[in-house]
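Notes from hallway chat w/ T.B., transcribed later so I don't forget. T.B. wanted the structure written out for a chain they're using in a teaching module, and asked if we could keep both sequence and structure tokens in one place. Agreed to drop them here.
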Amino acid sequence: MSGAVLRERVEEALEYAGLKDRANHRIDTYSGGMKRRINIAAALLHKPEFLIMDEPTVGIDPQSRNHILETVLNLNREGITVLYTSHYMEEVEYLCSRIAIMDRGKIIAEGTLEELRTTVGDADSVELVLSDAPDSLVEEIGNFPGVLQAKKVDNAITALVQNGHEKVVSILEAVSRSGAKVRSVNIDEPNLESVFLKLTGRALRD
């Protein structure tokens, strides 16, 4: 591209990235989020049919993150196929029509979100944020009837539990017996994070 065509495409790409007002500024003066967005602008310059985005929202401000997510959706609506990699499961749920889960460099599951959710059946994800929790507590919770899996990461225990809203009472009683203090409890119906935990055996933060 050159001449008027190039100038037009640059203007369109900067508009898409929300950086038109910074067109004449040096990129080394941009914030981290702006640098991610200018990368997207550069990738869009030649109107690709297929775009690969590798963790584009890591370490950026919430405004830039939201802008990037909306940009991905708009690009897809315009007919561009986007391959999007992320450790943020909520982004994948929000953006992707088809999902592949990788573990140790290999694809271990693939399908739509609904197809992947069926791998955990009716299990809910129960997360307990605790203080002074003994290591033996996660093993005790993991042996409860209806608990499919339990993992401890830092000060949080995450468990896949069938009928989690009913079983959480027994879990909290075990926490109380252990002497640990409950800082928060969260129960989520099956989502992509619970699928990931079920398939890999490791919480996302490992």
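Follow-up for T.B.: The beta strands are 50-54, 81-85, 99-103, 106-111, 123-131, 147-153, 156-162, 181-188. Might be a good example for the class.
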